[in-house]
Structures are given as C-alpha cells and as structure tokens.
Amino acid sequence: MHDRYQPTGLPVEHVVPELVEKLADHPVVVLVAPPGSGKTTTVPPLVRESGLLAGGKLIMTEPRRVAARAAAARIAELSGGKVGDLVGYRVRNDHRVGPQTLMEIVTEGVLLRRLQRDPDLEGVRLVVFDEFHERSLDSDLALVLTHDAQSGLRPDLRILLMSATPDLGALGRVFPSAPVVTTTARTHPVSVSYRPRDATEPLSDAVVDEALRLTTGVPEGDILVFVPGMREIRQVVSTLSRILGDPWTVLGLHGSLPAEEQDRALGSSLPGERRVIVSTSLAETSVTVPGVTAVLDSGFRRRPVMASGDSFPTLQTVRISRSAATQRTGRAGRTAPGVCTRLWSAEEDRHLSEDDPPQITYSPLDSLVLQTAAWGARTEELLWPDPPPPDHLLMSRELLVDIGAVDSAGRITPRGRRMAGLPTDPRIAAILVSAAETGEPETVATAAALAAVLHEDWRPERVGSDLAELVTGFWRNRRVPRSVHRQARDWFRRLAGGGSPPDTRPDLVGSLLLHGYPDRVARRKPGTAIHVLTSGRGVEVGRSPISGDTGSPDRIGEWIVIADLGNAKVRRGDRAGAPTLAAVTYATVDRESLSAAPTIRPTTVDELRWPGGTAPVTGRRTSRLGELVLAESQFRPGVEQIGSAVVEAVTAEGIGLLPWSERDRSLLSRLRFLASRGGSDGSRTISASTGIDPESLSDRALARDCAEWLAPFLSGADPRSPLAGLDL
Fold first, then answer.
1. What stretch of H or E contains 128?
2. Mean pLDDT for each consecutive 10-residue tract of the chain (728 residues)?
3. Sheet holding 124-129: strands in order across?
4. Alpha helices in 557-682 (DSSP H)
5. How far apart are CA 542 and CA 582, in angstroms?
6. Cβ proximity of 525 and 446 under 8 Å
C-alpha cells in the first residue's frame, strides 16, 4: 500500500497548485472543469498531499449515492489503498470510513445532517461541492448552511465549488470575490447525428429501434442510452434483452438499484462482452461509465415540478437543456472517438434552453424550510444563489404547520426536530414520527414499510397503485427490492429501538398517510373514477399513464389520500374539462379516520336560510376540507341569528320576501305619493311638507337599509316564524 496519488495525466492535475494557492488565501474558490478533466478523482488526493488540510479532513459532496461510492473507489485505486483507509464514503444506510480517513465522499444529504449535528464541522478543513452545476435543492441548501457556518463560526474553513459548466452568474452574486480557476478536458471527437422520432411513436419503442441500429453500426465499445426514468429503463432493458444475444449484455442504471447492480454497470466489460447500459440522467456527469463509444440520447428527463398555484408537485417529463445534451454527448468520447445519436431534430436542438433551471425554482421546498428552521434561521435571512420563490415558501410553511413540524411563527417544534433528523422528505418523516409516538410495534412496522415504499419510489409496473396493497405481507414479499426492505428494517429498528418487525397492517395505511399528506385528501364523484381534491381539482384514480386504461371505480374508496400525483394521459374522446391529474399512489381512508386525524383541520360553516314570508329560519352546519364536504347537519338558530338571517335575505333578494298585507302596501303607496309632492315646481326633491326623500322609499333602498328599519323589530322573534304578527 502507498498513500500517494499516482498521476494519470488528466488536465486538472496541472491547475491543482494554483487551486491550492487560491484556497490558502480565499474562503471560497470556484473550479470550472468540464467532464473528462478528472476533477472528481484528482482534486481531493492532490489537495490532501499539498498540506493545505493541515491535519484536518476534506469532505466532498456528490449528488448521488452511486457517485459517492464510485468516486471513493477510484480515489482509493489511484492512491494504492482501500476504501475505508485514507478515503472513505458515507451515504444513506451505508458507510466505509476508518480512523485514518482524511477524505470523506458523502452525499449532500449526509453533509446536511452533519451540519445540523455539528455546525462547527469540527476537524474539517475543506468542503468540496462536486458537480455543483447540477444545482440540486440539497446542494444549494448545503452550500448556504456551510457558508453560514463559515461566516459565523469557522472563518478558517475553506469551500471549493467544482462545476462542469462555466455559467457562474448565480454564484457571482453570492461570492463576488471568489477566484475562478479553469481547466480543460481530455476528450476525443464525437460525431453527432439527429434522428427525430415520430410524435406518435412511444419513446421507449423509438429508443429500442435506434439502439438496435447502433449495435450493428458501431464496431466496438459499449452503448450508453439516456431515458427519462425507471419506467423507460425497465421497458427498454426488457425488450433489448429478449432481442439481443451474445456478445451483448443489457443493463439498467439508476439510483434505486442495489449497489452491486450499479457497480456492474459502472465497471468494465468482461472479455469479449459488449454492453448496452440504459440510464437516467445519473450517468450524465456524476459517474463515468468506462468503455462507452456510442451515446443514444432520448432528450428527456423526469422531475417533480410545482405548477403555479398548486400546492403539490407533479412528476413531469421535460426536455433537457443544451448543456445537458453536450455533457451526455461527451460520454462517448472519454476513451476513443465516438458517436452520439439524438432523437430530435437539428431545428429542435436550436431551441433548447441553455441550462436546466436550479431545482430550488421549481420543486417543493418542504425539506428546505424544515432544515433552515432546524438551523435556527428563516429561509429569507440566508444568502441563496437563487432565492426560493415566495409562493412556494408559503405553501411549504403551511404544510409544515399542519404536520406539526413548525409553529405558526415558523420555529421548529420538538416533533419537527425529530423529523429533520430522519434522512427523508418531511412528509414521510411525519408518518414515521407519528407512528413512533404510538409505541405500537405493528403501527411502526407498517409506517416503516410505507415510508420505504414512498422514499425509494417503488411500485410494480401497474400505475395507480394502492399503497395498502403494496405493504400487504411486506416482509415476506419477494417482489419488494432488497433496497426497499433494507430501508424499512433500518427505520423500524431506529424507531422501535431494535428487534424484528411484526407483520404490517394494511388497514392503517390510509390513516398513516394523513399524517404526512393532509392536503392530498380526495373524495370520489359517485359512479366515476374521478376524485376531487380539497382544491377542487379532479384527479383520475386507476387510469394508467402508460395505457390510458381505467379500472373499475367501485374498487376505489369514496375517500382516499394521494401520495404521488402525475399528469393524466389524454385519450381520444376525452371530454373537455377532463381531469389533467392522475393519482400514482394512494390509499383509501374512512371518514372516522379523517375526523380523528390531528393533521386534518376542517372548517365549520353555519349557513342560515330564510325563504321569505312567514316561513321559519333554518340552519345548516357544514364541516369542510377546502372544497370537500365532510359532514352536514341541521341546527336551530339562536335568537340573535334570526334577525341577521332575515336582514341578509332581504338585502340580497329584495323586500318581496316580506309578508306584506294589503294595508301595508296601501300605506307604502300613500307615503311614496306624499314624498313625491315637492315644491311649486313639482320637483322630486325632499318635500317641504313631509321631509321625506322619495328615493328612500323605493324597493331598492328599503332592501338596502332594512338593517336600520326592520332589524330592531326582529329581536326575540320566534325562529319558527320570525315575521309572524309583525306589522310592517
């Protein structure tokens, strides 16, 4: 074993001395290094060897677990050691570090939780943010908190931001004095061709057809295919595996795969083997797939997006940016000249946006608001590269108040602090903490299984999945991926204090979901597969976004709680105004659970109705969740409410509602006649003889002013007939 980096001739090696010099004199430094420069595996060991750390540690963040493990393994290989010695990694549910570890490669979430436990970052000399150009929510938040700690607690701490793209406008606003060091990349030429697909052809079919063409047209090397998400990965891998034989092996690559399957895709081909690797955007920048000489780019990625005015995100398939397309293309030229096929036209390419927007501008901010509250600050008080949208902040604060994570002033609660310590979304954390508070093992086991399904985004091919079905027999279900089982067991042990989890109780799933998703309650419209959210928007339940087929509405409960929403697939023949949202995962909940849930806070509205004449005043009490009616009942109005009901009805509908007698009408006519008799010119002004304004006796004026002339006579009226016996 040796502990020194073995030079590889990568371009970034030549700028490390300048980088170290800048870090010695500046709190924040930026390195712009395109893919192929070697920044991820070269900078950490060379900075360590420079003496800059002075006995301290270096922490480097990666946007994904697979990238953190891969970076640690490659650095260890280049240094002649093992992972866990000088270099190690920490990711959710896995770590390999030792007492001699000076370089820790971590995910951004791991750094966030360490900052919450140890704001001083004791023993850490340098924090490196790799792939910062991706601008994930966690990377922005981790940078902001690290910078806040540096400014207030650790002026000796150094921050290095490494970006694959040169667009530094947002960083320049936060760190105007930060020096920028640039380097080049060692790449080979890549020939780009455009093969736009027919708009009516399913994306997965187009990918399969083009991949088959590449397997015969590219003489050597592996093929890297970019698709939007896991659904397309499964479809493409399944189809190609049936068609291709030796020497081809077809592999998937995404963040939810077990580590060993990810390592297989990120490793080198076996002798005589060629591979087709089908990946999400994971393989775009943060990991290197060796041996790739051809890239097939679908041109899409999938991400959750908050639409304007909505309090929930929907998972949308969106076009990639030009910078993303460039980085994907570059994957084909790492080791030799390569080719890239883009499934769009050259004209479409000219209209791509330059860069992907920062995640903070379009994603839910629940986690960000909770973590800043745990930090002891309000989000607006911190310095952000791109400030979070105020309307998204407001919606997240309202949700966190509803689930008990923060108080009305935005301060974190003891419950919220427990939630912030769990490595998952606040909604899922609320489910786990609520279950732990019951102290019931079956409830905790069910919550752990439910949380793992939601956190790992696991469900079978069928879309519109009932979550109660997914957790039925959970611990014995062999269809559940090992990563989901492992996550669920980890949460059960953490919340229950150890032991083996008992069987799950599917009947608890709906009530558990209410603790994290109180704003996603929906009620079915009778005889349809459409449910209505509290906002009034319609949601289809049971229609597959793949096929567009709708299941029987009878199998879906009247009341449901929706965990994930997507866009409904539009079918030929859909009527105007058909729902544009589809429930991806949900659970049925009964009315009793809704009434008992502490997160459900219905509003009670009392409506008084008086139809006129001598009819009674009736009262209807409605319990509502937004636009949804939970319960209705009749009540007897109080004495003080009767007069108000009559006055409101007359003001709105006119004096025709009053029980006028012939005598009353005759008297009103005579008064109007007298009021109309003006001076000698006969003008309709205030009569000199009566002092009455003629307009004040009109039907419109009498209705408008009835609170003055009618209300005093309604005090103590009988609600059964409030105007009976009243002499108008």
1. strand 124-129
2. 75 94 96 88 93 93 91 91 94 90 95 95 96 91 96 95 80 88 88 93 94 93 93 93 93 83 86 94 80 95 74 82 91 90 95 91 93 94 92 93 95 96 94 96 96 82 74 90 89 92 95 94 85 87 47 71 77 51 87 88 86 82 87 82 84 84 83 67 47 76 85 74 70
3. 94-96, 87-91, 103-107, 57-62, 124-129, 158-163, 28-32, 180-182
4. 591-596, 639-653, 662-676
5. 8
6. no
Distance in angstroms (rounded) separating the CA atoms of residues 667 and 672: 9
* Cα→Cα distances 33→16, 166, 335, Å: 11, 8, 18
Q: How far apart are CA 242 and CA 274, in angstroms?
A: 16
Strand, coil or helix: 168: coil
Give the largest Cα separation in the chain, rounded.
120
- Residue with tokens 């103590």, as numbered in its chain: 716
Cα-based distances in Å from 410 to 323, 496, 623: 38, 29, 27
DSSP string computed for 493-537 = HHHHTSS------GGGHHHHHHHH-GGGEEEEPTTSSEEEETTS-
374 shares its domain with 450? yes
208 lies in the same domain as 145: no
Q: What is the CATH number of the domain that holds 206?
A: 3.40.50.300
Question: Is residue 554 classed as helix, strand or coil in its secondary structure?
Answer: helix
Q: 169 and 196, same structural domain?
A: no
Three-class DSSP labels, 11-27: HHHHCHHHHHHHHHHCC
Question: Hey, is 628 helix, strand or coil?
Answer: strand
Domain boundary (311, 336, 360) is at: 360
Q: How far apart (Å, rounded) are the C-alpha atoms in residues 310 and 401?
A: 18
In which domain, by residue range, is 132 found?
A: 11-182
Same domain, residue pair 204 and 315: yes
Coil vs helix vs strand at 539: strand
- 305 burial type by CB count under 10 A (0-12 exposed, 13-18 middle, 19+ buried): middle
Q: Is the peptide bond before 247 cis (omega within 30 degrees of 0)?
A: yes
Which residues, other chains included, contact 140 with Cβ-Cβ below 8 Å and sequence gap of 6+? 358, 359, 360, 384, 385, 386
Residues 6+ apart with CB under 8 A from 195: 210, 341, 342, 343
Looking only at the bridges linking them, the beta strands covering 94-96 and 158-163 are unpaired
pTM for this entry:
0.84
Same domain, 153 and 222: no
371 Cβ partners below 8 Å, 6+ apart?
Answer: 112, 116, 141, 145, 420
One DSSP character per residue, 170-237 reads HHHHH-TT--EEE-------EEEEE-PPPTTS-HHHHHHHHHHHHHHH--SSEEEEE-SSHHHHHHHH
Residue 297: CB atoms within 10 Å? 25
Number of domains forming the structure of the chain = 4
In the structure encoding, which two tokens stand for residue 722, read together? Answer: 């409030």
Segment (H or E) for 325: helix 322-330
Q: CB of 583 within 8 A of CB of 531? A: yes
